[in-house]
């Protein structure tokens, strides 16, 4: 994973940095979110984001970029993005549990009611909720529709 604040970090370092960030000013409320977005070029550029939002006071985020065979079907693309987000969220959640760090994660999906992606929202939301995560869609899915989107272009 990469960070504009911390540079290149491995998964374990990312977890330690997230936990340290939240512990550093524990009087604030925090939201930990995982989101993915992608853009089509010759290949599909996919960006996975882990973000920590310190409510009212900014935040930090980590991202990973992948390039895969072009996905042109919007349904397939949203499911692929969600699968990547869920895989990272499960790994982060498992590590938080191991560290006795009780923090609930939300999954941010780059889908909204105003576009072609609206048809998959009920399925995606049910899938995410069934795994114990909160699901946010546009306009509340900033990890996917703002941060990941910015790095996917």
Task: Write a concise synopsis of the structure shown.
The protein is α/β, with parallel strands linked by helices and 153 residues long. The chain has helices at residues 11-24, 74-98, 121-130, 142-152; strands at residues 2-3, 7-8, 30-40, 44-54, 59-68, 105-109, 134-136. The model has no long low-confidence stretch (mean pLDDT 96).
Could you please describe the fold and organization of this structure?
There is one protein chain. The chain has four helices and seven strands; from the N terminus they run ββαβββαβαβα. The strands form two sheets. The protein has a five-stranded mixed β-sheet with strand order 5-4-3-6-7. It has a two-stranded antiparallel ribbon with strand order 1-2. The mean pLDDT is 96. Helices cover 39% and strands 29% of the residues. 36% of the residues are buried. The protein is an alpha/beta fold and 153 residues long. It has helices at 11-24, 74-98, 121-130, 142-152, and strands at residues 2-3, 7-8, 30-40, 44-54, 59-68, 105-109, 134-136.
The total beta strand count reads 7
Number of helices, counting only DSSP H or I runs of 4 residues or more: 4
Report the β-strand fraction as a percent range.
Answer: 25-35%
Enumerate the strands of the largest sheet in spatial order, edge to edge or round the barrel: 5-4-3-6-7
Q: Which blocks of ≥5 consecutive residues have pLDDT under 50?
A: none
Helix percent band: 25-40%
Q: Radius of gyration from the CA trace? A: 15 Å
Major sheet: size, sense and barrel closure?
5 strands, mixed
Q: How many discrete domains?
A: 1
- The structural class is alpha/beta
Shape: globular
């Amino acid at each position: 994973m990469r960070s504009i604040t911390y540079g290149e970090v491995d998964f374990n370092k990312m977890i330690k940095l997230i936990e340290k960030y939240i512990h550093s000013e524990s009087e604030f409320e925090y939201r930990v979110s995982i989101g993915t977005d992608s853009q089509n070029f010759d290949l599909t550029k996919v960006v996975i984001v882990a973000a920590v939002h310190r409510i009212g006071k900014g935040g930090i985020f980590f991202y990973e970029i992948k390039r895969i065979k072009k996905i042109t079907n919007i349904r397939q693309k949203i499911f692929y993005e969600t699968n990547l987000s869920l895989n990272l969220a499960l790994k982060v959640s498992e590590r938080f549990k191991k560290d006795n760090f009780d923090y609930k994660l939300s999954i941010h999906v780059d889908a909204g009611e105003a576009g072609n992606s609206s048809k998959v929202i009920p399925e995606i939301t049910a899938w995410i909720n069934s795994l114990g995560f909160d699901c946010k869609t546009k306009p509340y899915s900033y990890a996917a529709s703002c941060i990941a989107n910015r790095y996917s272009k």
